[in-house]
Amino acid sequence: MADNKRSDGIDYAKGIGILLVVLGHMQLLGCGETFRTLTNIIYSFHMPLFFFVSGLTLEKKYLSRTPCRSDIKKLAKRLLIPYFSWSAVYILLKCVIAGEGILRIIKRNSAAVLTFRGIAPLWFLSALFMAEVLVILLVYKLGMNKLYLLAFSGSMTIALGSAVQVFYGVFRYYVRLPIIAFYRLFPCIFFVTLGCVMSGTFTCARTENLRRKSALLAVSAAVFAAVNILLPSAANLYKMKFDNTAAFIITGMAGSIMIVSLCTLLPENILPLKFLGRNSMLIMVLHYPPVPTIALAEMLALSLRFEGYSCAAFVFLMTVTVTSAVCILYSFFAELIKRRPRMLRKPVSPAKSVRT
Predict the structure, then answer these.
(1) 264: which residues sit within 8 A by CB, 6+ positions away?
(2) 3-state secondary structure of 242
(3) Average pLDDT, the chain
(4) In whole angstroms, what is the distance from residue 181 CA to residue 188 CA?
(5) Phi and psi, residue 237, nearest 5°
């Protein structure tokens, strides 16, 4: 039976995932062109990894009970409130930085937010919400077979791949937004469902299924390497642009299983990875433009005369360090605010507490 305690392996996987997200965005640097191959490898599986991990936790949560309306409300509070609030912050920062064309920025970005196509990297929150809601309803409420949903969503992802690439050249921006948001649901549902299917292997106690986990690690690593070597291609789940949709599905599966297998074999209580995993959402929104974290780190790197790979390494380390420090401060003040009402509450006098 799965342990109810929060799994360190899940936190490790999310921690590695957010490091890959930040590393993948080093392409934004002036020296980023030299990292095209590395970026393509990262993009081939880093976002599917988060959807896969979400499926692992969904299966564990609803294995012994039926979902109810309050579960959807909690999910909306956890994902949609940050999605809309941070989207507003991003739009405001874009307007401040641009200085002109403000109405166009507001119009285009607001349309992206409201259609759930989203602004990078916040699109992940709306996509995860929709994918989880649909999997909860179809699998855990209506009883649909997970393997059927896996086959259907994977087939639709591959079947619609070429059509969506045509839409990019035919339809205007505002028409493309809901089309992309709709099509993106299929790969997101696919990876969430895959996580549900494989939950029993990865959410058990760390000492269980060791041989199976080791075998999965070896096989998935071999498949991941083979596909990236033999079929190198670019993929972008946010824009739904794939050079080879089938290759993306395979590398997304293999890469996700590889990372989670590795993480569930690691020792417990590796604090840096746990911290990064538990703060992955905040790191995600704090590191990416228009939040100036990467830009300021690059300016500092250039002032110190870093170039090429050394520049990217410095910016990567500075971005992770700064966003982690902000997460620590956020946690401290959030805990302080939570405790403040209790601290201000007047103690009840012993005399008043005695009933007369």
Answers:
(1) 7, 9, 202, 206, 213
(2) strand
(3) 90
(4) 11
(5) -70, -30
DSSP-assigned letters across all residues of 65-77: S---HHHHHHHHH
Q: Are 324 and 283 in contact (CB under 8 A)?
A: yes
> Is 2 in contact with 204 (CB distance < 8 Å)?
yes
* Backbone angles phi and psi of 236, in degrees to 5: -145, 105
Residue type, 308: G
pLDDT digits (tens, 9 = 90+) for 301-330: 989 988 888 888 999 999 999 999 999 999
Is the distance from CB of 298 to CB of 308 less than 8 angstroms? Answer: no
More confident residue, 170 or 151: 151
Helix, strand or coil for residue 250? Answer: helix
Q: What is the value of pTM for the model shown? A: 0.91
* Ramachandran class of 34: left when φ > 0, alpha when ψ lies in -120 to 50, beta otherwise: alpha
pLDDT digits (tens, 9 = 90+) for 26-42: 877 766 556 788 899 99
Give the whole-angstrom CA distance, residue 183 versus residue 149: 15
How far is residue 294's CA from residue 329's CA, in Å, rounded to a whole number?
19
Per the DSSP assignment, residues forming a β-bridge with 235 are 242
Instruction: Kindly give the pairing relationship between strand 241-242 and strand 235-236.
Output: antiparallel
SS3 11: helix
| Token representation of residue 271 | 């604090």
244 within 8 A of 231, measured Cβ to Cβ: yes
What's the pLDDT band for 5 if we cut at 50, 70, 90?
low
Residue count of the chain: 356
296-305 contacts at long range (C-beta below 8 A, 24 or more positions apart): 297/322, 298/29, 298/30
